Amino acid sequence: MKPVKVLQIAFTYIGTVVGAGFATGQEILQFFTRYGYWGTISIGIAMILFVWLGAKMMLLAAGIGARSYEDLNKHLFGPRFGVWVSYFMMVVLFGVSAVMLAGGGAIFEEHFGIPYQTGLIITMAACYVLLLRGMNAIVTVNSVVVPFMLLFTVILIADTLMTNEGERWVFTADHISPLSAWASPFLYAAFNLSLAQAVLVPLGSRINDRRTIIAGACAGGIGIGFMLLVGHIALSTQMPGISQLAIPMGGIAKQLGPGIQWIYLFLIFAEIFTTLISDVYGLTLQLEERVGLSRQALTGCILIFCFLLSQIGFEMLLSTLYPMFGAVSLGWMYLIIRRRQDRPTL
């Protein structure tokens, strides 16, 4: 086992799952916090799924020498259906990109006093300009944003625990069906794991060491669970009023003073923006192989489509598309669970 590579797997895993919906608080709110104490239990279930299935996915990829998530899908579904699953993943990426663009517009409208449509156009223009510079710019932005996001997460939970109100909603049940609460961690894990395969599959093939992969998945899955719990506790202290905001974590950041609030809002937008450019870049690369258009033209077309879809609104898109994609992704997760490898690993 190689400790450096274990950390690389863990950080990559966390960075892939902890995206913009997580940073704004909407994912945590929709999948966990609105269920009261059931949400706390669900986070534990989700963490176990991330550890177990994250490791299994990377081990499967290493076992078949998969170069991309399409290779893994062909292995799981067969050559014909595997291609269709890859097409479905493109649809998911379109939907997630629209959610990210809408999130950028919501930040401008809710916290910067700029109209939603103007915020969308500004975000689109910045995305298009940056994507002209390629992957190096994307990597640079991510390497700056993620460490600061982790730092502010620690600051928020420290402030929350000092208020002694963390137990007020975490351990209080609401009136939502327990069945929905129990389904939530499976939907959340299925959706995020199906998206994460774009990164975890080639990573598992490259590492190709069983103990290292398992240790990295354990560290990454536990890290994801910890961050979910931190966000859940912070949001729980402000329920139910915080659920009315499109950017719930932005509302919590107000308590830390105007200076910290503006920095945190900028980080939320940066997290949304980095997720958007990554998804649009991935879509552009996939479509470039199938459509006879230049990369610049494809990028513009994708952004225009996302702009039209983002008219639905950030919160509505996230609360509608994410559970729907999660439900479809359950079939993919089921095949991951039942797929046996050449030798037992998990």
UniProtKB/TrEMBL annotation:
Keywords attached to this entry: Membrane, Transmembrane, Transmembrane helix
Transmembrane residue ranges: 35-60, 81-108, 114-132, 144-162, 182-201, 213-235, 262-285, 297-314, 320-337
Protein's recorded name: Transporter
Organism name: Paenibacillus sambharensis
